[in-house]
């Protein structure tokens, strides 16, 4: 009997038919990947499976019994947990408080037993091989760290089915391999593990089963082979009769003269310990590093969202176009329409005698949405779009600022997080085009393939410092050694997870 299954599930959001009569089963002891283009219905289907969305028709079954009532609490109580792409954590609480929230152990007199809570949480961390700063507030953690907290929270609740939506979107190759080793341990222990991903090489290397979705429907479910043709075969199933043109980097001339973006000995607490960086017109500089080594802080410092302790950054923020690492928290107003989101920060351009020119806004918003292959109806609320389509709109807004001459610096953090192959190619082409127009471009990414495809040079951060500047053809080993520079890798007798 499957641990979890969806049967004849159908779901609409207004005119959008997100999931079409889908039936799928997830078995214990297996890693099951669900793949497809942005908007194919993957996340919607699994949110239904986890009780987070109610289907219009069909049902979810856990251990053969219908999920009723169809709620997240009921699903959790029956052992189904989902780690979403955008995490459901409380920023002002610590990592430990988030993990135990709703399942707080009680002491002898009914009070919260933090000692017991920490002991169980640390046992979970050991199970998944994770190091978690239990007393740090979630607001201070990077995305990779928050992901580990989410996984720990699911296992703290004794989840027997663990669903993860784009879990490696911002992880380095080494971190991704480590995560999948953890997922394999969970599967070998008898859990059902479900992963939504756009990284088909990960499916080939780590998954046991793959389900392909296209335009809301399940196209096929197959056992995964480790053959060299597996990735191409999955890509063909995802794209149907369509094809994805290879990325054409072309040749670019990097502008001469003074650098456009300059950081001089920037320091920010313990996170950034004296970073200097110059980026010239037309140059793309990639920033690599293990999560938590200063990348997030550098992005926020360049955008002048956080103050630096010392050093200097130029130019001013008003000539910088930015794509934030977390589109939900920093890149979008989720309950506002597409029109307002793709024009966010630029409304003054559309003011006429103190009033907004709605027609001009609609025209510009439709043009930007069309370029991003988004909906023509710009009144659609951003929250209803798939994660990949949301990302394309955020990128389109930043690129438009460069094209129209309002920004000289393009700062992009994890540009293709949760984005399918075709959209990734389109976003990469836009970034290259922005550099071609003379913008100084900084790309922060955990994907070394992405950094190689885009960068003229790769700057590696380790422990808040620049540990190396490398050419884009540097090997994984060379970049990995630079990422670990300054880290103490010697074993400790009393090492804690």
Give an overview in words.
By secondary structure, this protein is α/β, with parallel strands linked by helices. It is 33% helix and 24% strand. A 6-stranded mixed β-sheet has the order 6-7-8-3-9-10, with helices on both faces. The protein has a 6-stranded mixed β-sheet with strand order 15-18-19-13-20-21, with helices on both faces. It has a 4-stranded antiparallel β-sheet with strand order 2-1-4-5, with helices on one face. The protein is globular. It starts with a strand and ends in a 14-residue tail after the last helix. Residues 488-497 have low confidence and may be disordered.
Question: Brief description of this entry?
Answer:
This protein is of the alpha/beta class. It contains 16 helices and 21 strands.
Helix-strand blueprint:
Elements: E1 4-13, E2 16-26, E3 31-36, H1 42-49, E4 57-62, E5 65-66, H2 72-77, E6 80-83, H3 95-100, H4 114-128, H5 143-156, E7 161-165, H6 173-188, E8 192-196, H7 200-206, E9 209-214, E10 217-223, H8 230-239, E11 261-268, E12 272-279, E13 284-288, H9 295-302, E14 310-314, E15 320-323, H10 327-331, H11 338-342, E16 351-352, E17 355-356, H12 358-371, H13 387-403, E18 409-413, H14 421-436, E19 440-444, H15 448-454, E20 457-462, E21 465-470, H16 476-483
Parallel strand pairs: 3-8, 3-9, 6-7, 7-8, 13-19, 13-20, 15-18, 18-19
Antiparallel strand pairs: 1-2, 1-4, 4-5, 9-10, 11-12, 11-14, 16-17, 20-21
Helix pairs in contact: 4-5, 7-8, 13-14
